[in-house]
Every structure is written in C-alpha cells, then in structure tokens.
Amino acid sequence: MRKLWICLAAAALTSAQEPASVLQNVCGKCHAPETVITPRPKAQWEETLNKMVDMGAKFSPEERTLLLDYLAATYGPGATRARAGARGGGRPSGPTLNGAPLDRHVVDPEAANRGRKVWVAECIECHGTSARGTEKGKNLIQSDMVLQDRYGSKLVPFFTKGHPMQSGRPSASLAKTDVADLSHFIHERVYDTLRGSPIFKPLNLLTGNAKAGEAWFNGAGKCNTCHSPTGDLKGIGAKYDPPTLQGRFLFPRGGGRGARGGKQLTLTITPPTGPAVSGVPVVFDDFDVSVRDAAGKVHAFTRSPQLKVVRNDPFAMHDQLLDVYTDKNMHDMLAYLVTLK
C-alpha cells in the first residue's frame, strides 16, 4: 500500500495541485494518509525512492527532488503530521509489532558521532562504552524503550521527565537535538550486534561444561536415542566452528536450504479405500493434501474425516527441545559436541 502511494504521488506532484491536495486525492479515497506513511528521515525516503525506481517507477530528476523534499518535510521524524503524538503518547504512526514500530531507525553517521559526545559526557559511566550496561546501569541494547524509540520519540519524553546524568545536570536540560543525536548513537550500538554490522564478531560461545553436556545428551535430553558420538556425530566438532555447530543442533532443518543428511518431512496418507501412499508434501492445508512419492508421481486428496494423514517429521524432537532447553543446557551441549573430534 505504501509503495503504491509513493508511485502515484510521484506522478501527481508535478500538477498544479498543492501537495496536501495531492495527498488527499491520491490516498484519501481509501484511507487516511497517516495510516499509510510511517515517519522516516530524508535518507530513508531516498532509499525508498531508489527501491521504487528499481521496481519500475518512472519520474524525472526534478520530480524526484520535489517528491523527496516533500516527503522529508511532511513525513520526516520531526514532522507533527507524521506522528501519532497528535493522538497521544508521542508514538510513531504505522504498523507495530509488540508495541514497537516496524519502520527501521536509519542511523545518520554524523548524528551518531555527535551523539557519542553526549554519551561520553552523560551516559558512559553507567551504561558502558557499548551501551551494554554496567553494575550502575542497565543494558540499553535490550531496552524496550530504546528499541521502540525513533529519532528521540521515546527518549525525549524520558529525559524531560528526569533521569540522573553523570555530570549532575538535570536531564531535562538536554536539547531535543542532542537527544535525537544520542538516539542515533544508541541505535548504532544496537545494530553493531547484528550480523550485518561491519564490526560484528560472534562472541565466545564455549562457556559451558562438556561433562554436563554429555550427561544431558545421554540423560534428560534423550539425544542418544537418535544420535551417537561414534556414529552420525563422529567428527562433528572438527567439521564446524562453534557458532555454526550451535545453529545446526538447535535448528537442524537447515534454515530453508534443504534437508540435512537427506532427512525431510514426509506424509503418509491412507484414503478410505485403496492403498496408503507416502511422499514429500506438495500441498498440506486444511482443505487439500498432496505428496510426491519416490518415483516423482503426485498423489492429491481432499481432506475429510475418513482420510488419515500422518506426519513423519525427523526433526520433531528438536522442535520440542526448543521449549525444554535452558541456557545452561545449550551451552553445555555445545561444549560437549565440540569435543567430538
């Protein structure tokens, strides 16, 4: 819906109409524009327009400049029309997930560098160099308020209300622009934890107890009912590095890259009359089910109470273990598996 609006607006903005009229005429027929557009800084609007061009949108350089300026001015993070603050709470408009806006905070490197100065002067003693917290202050990387913040939308009210700062100054004395810069710096630290970050490095995962992992493997985990350290797991510790190995035993399905070890989900279908058939599912929903057998033939059925369908899932136990593992279990298991050289 948002993509459609941008493409239509690009064509309409060159007319003699005022931008507000264009917005209403193009979008208002079906919905209020505020429900379509999520607040974004100019850099992210430019990124969006580039994507639209890649998808086939056509407009002249002059039209692109006009559209970019209009979107940045009217629907930037500081524009009141782009915020749900007019409805209360200062929360950005647009879709949310668990209360957090789905639009991504795009970090401005220059703003983040300015925010670093605020951080060093007022925050670093309690929250640490990387915002991961100390004995004096919490880990902001995991803070719900930080993750919901967009360009100071949560931090400005927080500091205005009052929060201790290491300089002793009242937090309400911070300018809104300083808090916005601080938001860029903190979000940059958040993104540094992601694999896409240029400085991301997996931390040392080998913090568990190998003996405890072996005991869990052969005991409560019941892993030895399907696996053997001298059989299918022989040499697995030498084959993979710890981060990869952890991913493989926690999520053995392969993350969509195909079944591992030739194992995959199959279905056995027994119709009211005729022989049972087994194969890899092609369609499997509440209405229809079909499988492709070993010979490549597809067998299709309509679901009914008389049609018996049995799932043969070689990874079902691994799925169940995700609700059983404790953090200690996972680290102990990894410490044990890396010993299987």
Description:
The protein has 341 residues and is an alpha+beta fold. The chain folds into 4 domains: 2-93, no CATH class; 109-191, Cytochrome c-like domain (Cytochrome Bc1 Complex, Chain D, domain 2, Orthogonal Bundle); 215-256 and 318-337, no CATH class; 264-313, SH3 type barrels. Helix content is 39%, strand content 9%. The protein has helices at 2-12, 19-27, 42-54, 61-74, 109-122, 124-127, 144-148, 155-161, 176-191, 210-218, 236-239, 242-250, 316-321, 327-337, and strands at 96-97, 100-101, 266-270, 277-284, 288-292, 298-302, 308-312. It has a 5-stranded antiparallel beta sheet, with no helix packed on it. A hairpin with a 6-residue loop joins β3 (266-270) and β4 (277-284). α3 (42-54) crosses α4 and α5 (109-122) packs across α9. The longest helix is centred in the middle third of the chain and has 16 residues, at 176-191. The two termini are 53 Å apart.
Primary descriptors:
341 residues, alpha+beta, Cytochrome Bc1 Complex, Chain D, domain 2, 4 domains, five-stranded antiparallel β-sheet, two-stranded antiparallel ribbon, 14 helices, 7 strands, disordered N terminus
Q: Mind sketching the topology for me?
A:
Elements (H helix, E strand, L loop, with lengths): L1 H11 L6 H9 L14 H13 L6 H14 L21 E2 L2 E2 L7 H14 L1 H4 L16 H5 L6 H7 L14 H16 L18 H9 L17 H4 L2 H9 L15 E5 L6 E8 L3 E5 L5 E5 L5 E5 L3 H6 L5 H11 L4
Antiparallel strand pairs: 1-2, 3-4, 3-7, 4-5, 5-6
